[in-house]
Each structure stands twice: as C-alpha cells, then as structure tokens.
Amino acid sequence: MDEKRKISLERADELHEEIEDFLEFKEEFLRETAEIRDVLSKKHKEELINYFDATEEDWNDWHWQLRHRISSVSLLSKFIKLTDKQYKMFEEISKKFRWATTPYYLSLMDYEDMNYPINLMALPTEAENDKSGELDPMSEEYTNPAPCITRRYPNRLIINVTSSCAMFCRHCQRRRRIGECDRIESEENINAAVEYIKNTKEIRDVLITGGDPLMLPDEMLESIIKQVRAIPHVEIIRIGSRLPVTMPQRITDDLCNMLKKYHPLFMNVQFNHPGELTEDAVAACEKIVNAGIPMGNQMVFLKGINNDKYIVQLLNEGLLKARVRPYYIFHPKQVLGTKHFEITVEEGLKIMKYLRGHTSGLAIPQYILNAPHGLGKIPLLPQYIQESDEEHVKLFTWEGKEVEIVY
Ligand code: SF4
Questions:
Q1: Is pLDDT at 141 greater than 90 in this prediction?
Q2: Most buried in the list 114, 194, 386, 393, measured by CB within 10 Å?
Q3: Measured in whole angstroms, how far is the alpha carbon of residue 120 from the centre of its chain?
Q4: Cα–Cα distance, 110 to 116 (Å, whole number)
C-alpha cells in the first residue's frame, strides 16, 4: 500500500470515530420511532377516529381536523389520563393562554410522558405561569406602518392575514396575536395592506403569514396572493406556515394547484423535532415541493425539545430527505409564558459548532437572534477567527485545529 493511501485510510478511521456516537443515537432513535412511536400514533389515531365516530376519509379532511380540535381539558382527559393537579393546572393556564391541538397532532403524543417533546409543544405546563418576558418583545406594534403590515427591513415586509392557527404552540413567539380568538383580517385591512405595498416601490419580497395563512380557505388566500402578485415591483412571495407539521391534511392537491399559479413562491415551515417528521408531514412537504415551491425550515431552539446536537442533526438531515432546506434556527425570544423553553446563546453556539463538519452544509441553517424592538435579525456564528491583520489570518477548523493563511 502506498503512503498516500495509508494516510487516507487512517484519516477515514478518524472520521468514522467522529460520527460513531451520532450513528448509535440515530439507530436507537429510529428503532424507538419504528417500534414504539409509530405503533402508538396509529393506535391513538384509531382511538380518536372511533371516539368521534369518524372515518379515515374524515381524518384526512382538514376541515374535519379543525372541527374536532381538542381544546378543553375534559375532552383531552378522555385520551390522556390527567392527575387532579394536572387537570386544575390545565384549566388555570387555559384562562391565560389559549390552547388547542388537532386530533392529528394529539395522535403523535406520548400519553404516558408529559415531557415528550411533542406533548411539550402542544399542551400547557405549569411553567407558563412564570411572569418574566413580554408579550411583544419585538415591538411589532411599532413596525406596523399600515394595517396587517410588519416592516423591519428596507425592501421586504410581512402581511399578517389572520390570527388563527390549527394548534396553539406553547412556545409561540406571537402569542399576543393568536391569544384570544380566530380572526381573519377584514377585506378592508387587507386592501389597505396591498395598497401600502403598491405605493412602496422598494418592496420586492412579501411574506404572507399570521397566525397561519393556510388557515384561510383557498379562495380567500388566492385572492390575497393574486393581488400581491399583480404588483409589478413584488418579485417574490413567501408563505410562512406550520400546518404541514400540525395539520398536514391541509396540503391538498387543490391548494398546491392554486399556489403554483403564482410563482416565484416560497414556503417556510417550522419543524422543531424529528418526531414531527411523520409520513403524513413528509408527504405534505413533497406535494408542496412538487408544485415547484422551494421549502425552508425555521426551527426555534427550545429547551427540552431540541437543545441537543444530535436531535438537531437528525432533524436537519431528515428535512433534507423531505426536500426541505434547513433555513434558520431562531434563538427563542423572551415571550411571556415561554421562559421554560429558553436556552443561552452559548448553548446554541455549541450546537452550531458541532454541526459544522459533522453534517453537510445544506443541513446547517443560519442561527439567528431577533433583536428586541424590531431591530432585525442578528446572525450568530461560532468563533473561527483567532487573529487577523493585514498580513495574516489565524483560524480554527471544524475540529479545532489551528491554520494560518499568510497574504
Ligand atoms: S403555528 Fe406559529 S403562529 Fe401559530 S401558534 Fe404555532 S408558533 Fe404560533
């Protein structure tokens, strides 16, 4: 064997060692998913279908999913056994922060373990009583130059078309907007927003969001997209939705056929845990991508859910398989009632540092902290530059080895 091949093989062994722990973790996670989670969620689905005296066809109909949302403690307790203390706590939290889950998302939960990440994202916990944080840390109300509009950047803006969502995520950063009722913006407000965009020539990118814009009926959503698309200076339209995750039944052929008339159109979703990447959710993403709509994922770092390097790697690699590009990881904002999900920037950076080198660049999103008071996104990067001047730069590689480039 020649010397070069010998060195290459030694390096290959070193690299294999680097990934061994993750591979073990992945095997265990997938085994557990196949043996326990999949079996459990099928069982839960059957129970829910029987309870509501429904059919498979009903289950696959998003209107049925919405009509049968579980939003009362008494109904929830038919499926998950709650202690008296939990029952009372759920009722108490419900008075402060609304909660609801689709039957589909409930079927993914672990009925025995309230700390299972899917449960934590959907069901209230006592920690929501914590009084720290604000309802609007982004001061969105001060970046609202016209009805339904949020504008934080020179050439792009957001239209918030509804306050309704299929499920009320416990970590929601927009609790303020979705808190009280399901309210679709009035035609008058939408028209005023469209007028603002028409009159603001520098706006080239419009994000339609909410709440969740896919909660609107197809015709209403189409009417908004059509008006925005007709504005000559709007180059791209983006939709922000979590429905492919919490109610994938919403992604119908009719919806995709409608959306694909308005290219260039992009969609960003929010998967936070690999347990959300179910067959149904992946199939929903496939439909969207097959309609020519590039998809990106905007994960939020959440303690107890994804503040783990292997979970993030597994999620991002799973997303790529579903043809969804991991786009952003958001640092959690200090929103009232969500303190228990917060992590430190240091912890987030450690995970980002691990990802580099251990997975492909496509599976490494940008880590972003949204500055308070609507001051915009701040990218957070692990430190790779050790020192730099006009003559040289000293850097660290992904393995922490030092390299120097002399100019
Ligand atoms: S889908 Fe988005 S806006 Fe709606 S509750 Fe969840 S995080 Fe909040």
A1: no
A2: 194
A3: 14
A4: 6
Residue 180, pLDDT > 80, answer no
> Residues with Cβ within 6 A of ligand 1?
165, 168-169, 172, 174, 178, 211-212, 242
Alpha helices (H) along 33-145: 38-51, 56-59, 62-67, 73-76, 84-96, 103-107, 117-122
Ordered by where they begin, the domains of the chain are 140-376 (3.20.20.70)
Provide mean pLDDT across the span 2-31.
95
Q: Best of 102, 212, 333 to mutate for ligand 1, by most ligand atoms within 8 A of CB?
A: 212
| pLDDT tens digit sequence for 300-335 | 999 999 999 999 999 999 999 999 999 999 999 999
What residue owns the CA closest to ligand 1's atom 3?
A: 211
Please give the C-alpha separations between residue 345 and each of 217, 375, 380, in angstroms, as whole numbers: 39, 18, 8
Is the pLDDT score of 353 beyond 80? Answer: yes
Protein residue closest via CA to atom 1 of ligand 1:
242
Kindly give the distance from the C-alpha atom of residue 290 to the centroid of ligand 1, in angstroms, as a whole number. Answer: 25
Half-sphere exposure of 374 (CA within 13 A, CB side): 16
Paired tokens of 260 = 């694909």
pLDDT at residue 210 greater than cutoff 90: no
